[in-house]
Design goal:
By secondary structure, this protein is an alpha+beta fold. The protein contains six helices and seven strands, in the order αβββααββαββαα. It has helices spanning about 5, 40-50, 55-65, 105-120, 150-200, 200-210, and strands at about 20, 25-30, 35, 90-95, 105, 130-135, 145. The strands form two sheets. It has a four-stranded antiparallel sheet, with helices on one face. Strands 1-2-3 form a three-stranded antiparallel sheet. The chain starts with a helix and ends with a helix.
Amino acid sequence: MTMAMSAIEINDEITNPLTYNAQYRALICRACKYTLNSGAGVAKHLRIMHKSLDLQGRRKLMAYANGLNIVDREAIVVPDKGCMPIDGLRLSDGFECQSCGNVRSSEASIVEHCRKQHNWVKANGVQWDECKIQTFLPMNQGGYFIVAMTEGNMDQRMNISSIDEYITGMLDKAKEMDLEEDKQLAIVDINQHTVDKSGLGLGVKILLRMKY
C-alpha cells in the first residue's frame, strides 16, 4: 500500500487517483499517469480532470497533498538510464538515438531528430534503438527517460496497469453518469419552461386535443 493510499481515507483506496513517490518527491496521478505541481496545481487538476470526485473527496486529497514535500514536475531530476519503472507513470515504447542518446516517443520523431542533428539519410540504416520509456510530464511534453524491463517486474507492471485501467474506467463511468444527469436536468428545465410559458403541461394539452 502506498503512502497516498494509507494516509487518506477516501471511499475506496482503489479509486484514489493519487500516489506519492518520496524518492523523487513527486505526486503522481495514477489515472492521468503524470505528476502534479504543488499547491494550486493539485487543486486545478482535481477540479478539471476529476470532476467525479465530490467536494469532500477533493478536500481530503488537497489536505493530504499540502502535507507532502512536492517538487514541481519541471524541477524533478530525471532518473538515470535503466532505472526501474516508476509506479503510476505511463510506460510507453520509445526510441533512443545511438549517436547522442536523445530519447523520443515515436519513430517519426527520432527519424526527424537524426536527420536534423546527425545528417541521417535512409541509406545509413537504422541508427536508433527501441526501448521502454516514462516521463513525469503530461503526454507529448517530453522529459522522457529509459527504464529497465525485466521478467521480475513484468508481472508487477501488469498488475499496476490493471489497477490504473480500473481507476480510469471508474472515473470515465462517473463522467458518463454526470453527463446523463445533466441531460435529464436539461429535459426537466425545458418541460418546466413549456409549462410556465403556456400555463398547461404537455399531458394536459394532449388530453384537450383528444377531447375536442
